[in-house]
Write a structure and sequence with these properties.
The protein is α/β, with parallel strands linked by helices. The chain is 32% helix and 20% strand.
Length: 526
């Protein structure tokens, strides 16, 4: 785990293996060219005020995320200077956007893999800037190494009794940056200390969510995921209740059982309850946790099932959010529901045409077994509604249709309350998670009418992401505010890493949900 320190040392005198500075694109009519960002004055001085000129000679443009390394002059203790692009320089009297700082820090941290300590001297005007830089660096330094260099995977032990300890792993991959020192932060200031503590708690849980998403499905299945949640509950004072197969049968959870009945690893429903004695509001979070999705009898074709270990990203996000709320001691009750199952084909699997009786009593005709996420979520949403929370938010890698609509880097937001949908969208944008509000058109509901059951699990093909949202809405308790986040696009990055986003599991929606919990605790959401 990458360590974080707040440093009062000067940039020139701090002992580190590298020093990170920010550069930006200057406004052409005024200065033009490259601009060295605030905080790096001592570094620029060591270059005789010509750092920007040297970087331009090397081809640096200040573009967001661009990284340029160069040897440090004799006036600096660090042997290497890393210049990272911040994008366009802000106008006079304006500051850099938090997300620009976050992405720049993440790009620099990734570029410094194999390094022991790096000093970050990016622009810091307030504790919020320090927090953004810390988040970016700690998220950017992430690497999933549980199955490399002799490590034993989820809950396992290394094959040779020890993991690689040098900067470079046994397979040639560099280990993550070991320590981040924020220069310009104020370690004795309460606001800066709180910002650092929040950044550490948040990023550690996001990275744990990433680990879960990246864990292969032969190790992460409903029972083992429930065990991880139980262990975290004991560590952080969270009450955890696990509904195993017997409890699910007894309770009549037809949706979760129907999806999981074809798998050798049985389904689970996990409740995580964090409470605070001063809480005035309760927020319920529901996560889709399909630990592997083959599509079931409606089998996915080759090329579409290789990454389906990520279909539990919603449950991972909910789990991480509840633990973060507990670690931060938020004055709000947060309940997490993890709807866990494997969707596999077998002689016992649900067939297209079968009818399931859900926990709510509603009957559902299953027209496509690959539309399984909405079935497990429906049972969990109904159960969450019984506790009458102030709001329910479900999170799921639910539909490919949402990816087609919004691409791979943003999630869709649907809700039964426009103001709540707007609030979540604004929160997501504030914390740097790209999202977009989506409608729930009533005319699409008719497509799910079934001649056999109360409702079908499929409707019109066009607008499929909205149809899925309308299906879930049917199971929300009366007069309960609800929102649905379809994170199918950004939950798993199959392309190259960028900013603080790695290849593989990303931890999508955790920052939005944590901020939502904080706003709820503060009474800012009504």
């Amino acid at each position: 785990m990458t360590a974080l320190t707040l440093s009062t040392a000067g940039a020139a005198t701090l002992r580190a293996d590298a020093i990170v500075v920010g550069v930006a694109k200057g406004a052409a009519p005024k200065s033009g060219g490259l601009v060295v960002a605030a905080g790096a004055e001592a570094v620029d001085k060591a270059f005789d005020g010509k750092l920007a000129t040297v970087l331009e000679t090397l081809g640096a443009s200040g573009a967001e995320g661009e990284v340029t390394k160069l040897p440090a002059p004799s006036g600096l203790k660090a042997p290497v200077v890393v210049a990272v692009g911040l994008g366009p320089a802000p106008e006079k009297d304006e500051a850099y956007r938090a997300e620009s700082l976050r992405r720049a820090a993440g790009a620099a941290a990734r570029a410094l893999a194999g390094t022991k300590k790096a000093a970050f001297v990016l622009p810091i005007e307030a504790s919020e800037d320090a927090e953004a830089i810390a988040e970016g660096a700690l998220l950017g330094a992430y690497a999933f190494t549980a199955y490399q260099d002799g490590n034993g995977g989820l809950g396992g032990s290394p094959k040779d009794g020890k993991a690689a300890k040098d900067a470079n792993g046994g397979n040639g991959k560099k280990q993550p940056l070991a320590e981040v020192a924020l220069v310009g932060a104020k370690p004795r200031d309460k606001a800066y200390k709180a910002a650092a503590e929040r950044a550490i708690a948040l990023t550690e849980e996001i990275n744990r969510a990433r680990d879960l998403v990246n864990t292969p499905p032969n190790d992460l299945y409903p029972e083992s995921f429930a065990a991880v949640a139980t262990a975290a509950g004991k560590e952080h004072g969270i009450k955890v209740q696990v509904f195993d197969e017997k409890a699910l049968v007894k309770g009549g959870y037809g949706g979760i059982l129907g999806v999981g009945q074809g798998a050798a690893n049985g389904p689970r429903l996990v409740r995580l309850g964090y409470t605070h004695p001063k809480a005035q509001k309760t927020l319920a979070l529901v996560g889709k946790g399909i630990t592997y999705d083959s599509g079931g009898i409606s089998l996915k074709p080759a090329g579409h099932n290789e990454t389906m270990k990520c279909d539990m990203s919603g449950a991972a996000a909910v789990f991480a959010t509840v633990v973060t709320a507990a670690r931060l001691g938020l004055e709000v009750n947060v309940t997490g529901w993890l709807a866990l199952a494997e969707n596999m084909p077998s002689g016992t699997a649900t067939r297209p045409g079968d009818v399931l009786r859900m926990y709510s009593g509603t009957t559902v005709e299953v027209l496509n077994t690959d539309a399984e996420g909405r079935l497990v979520l429906a049972d969990a949403i109904t159960k969450a509604s019984e506790e009458n929370p102030d709001a329910i938010v479900d999170v799921a890698t639910l539909t490919g249709a949402m990816v087609l609509a919004l691409g791979h880097r943003r999630f869709g937001i649907m809700a039964n309350d426009d103001a709540f949908r707007t609030s979540i969208h604004e929160i997501a944008e504030e914390v740097g998670e790209d999202s977009w509000p989506m409608p729930l058109p009533s005319d699409l509901r008719k497509g799910m009418d079934s001649p056999t059951a109360d409702i079908a699990n499929m409707g019109e093909r066009m607008g499929g992401g909205l149809v899925a949202g309308l299906f879930l809405k049917e199971f929300v308790g009366e007069d309960i505010t609800w929102a649905h986040l379809d994170i199918a696009g950004p939950a798993f990055n199959e392309g190259g890493p960028f900013g603080y986003t790695p290849k593989g599991g990303t931890g999508s929606a955790v920052r939005t949900l944590v901020k939502l919990a904080e706003r709820t605790a503060a009474g800012d959401l009504g």
